[in-house]
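Kindly inspect this one:
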Amino acid sequence: MKIKVAQFGLGPIGLETLKLAATKPWAEIVGGIDIDPAKIGQDLGDLTGEKALRRRLVYGSLEELVARAKPDIIFHTAVSRFRDAFGQIEPMARLGISVVSSCEELLYPWSRAPGLAAKLDAICKHSGSRVVGTGVNPGFVMDVLPVCLTGVSREVRAVHVQRVVNASTRRAPLQKKIGSGWPPARFRRLFKEGRAGHAGLKESLALIAHCLGWKATDIVETGKPVVADHDIRTKHLEVKKGQTCGLHQRAEAKVGGKVRLTLDLKMYLDAPNPHDAVQIEGEPPLDVIINGGVAGDQATVAALVNAARNLLRAPAGVLLMTDLPVPRIG
């Protein structure tokens, strides 16, 4: 049977998600949702350049979409904060529609908003819907992957993860989100206010601790700007020497009074030697490096689409990626 699919949020990631979903033999695309007046009413085939998406339209609301065709699952790529995502996802869940979201804080929503997470979970269980947050980071590299690596461990004493991303290769919204072109003082101020930086690092840490049965305490997250030491031009923007060209963000937690979880993220323009690395201190010790790193934008789209069928086979509720079968192409 075909799975009826819709897309909420038609930015760069949303459009690419639709294009990938359209190649899957199990997917029947029924439409998209966006608040941009310039996109509402447009043909998805015209927006994406994909013939397979012709005669599928963009609607201005969930209600308008459902009046034409009710999807089984919606790919949600709109916001980073769970409190913002809740208002968008709750109506979908009430209608029994399952959701795969790129909302970073939805990876482990009990971390920041346990009350809202419990409320959404109850709605899902009542309606028979399922909700999960995923992506490349969070959703795989700095959380699900290290958890999977512990599957061959007799003992785990600590988990350390590092990710270095050359943001020059990434989409325009991400280059702007990491503060490219800002004075360093502005980045520091906005990070302190919770309005700058990478979302989801604490959720990645919380997911690892949850899966290992560890009670994480003394959680500390820091963030500072990476300052350009030369003028940088990407296809999206320009950064002068001395301006912010990205970030260095770190989260750590103690378990039993000792630091046993560390996540270290460097994401900036022209970053040399991009890679992802995981060290498992235990028996046996593991030191795994992905040279070049996991390509963020492409991998995020794949993570969303590949999670769909696993999610629909799962029990109702707000789920974690680690509640589902091992991620795989699907």
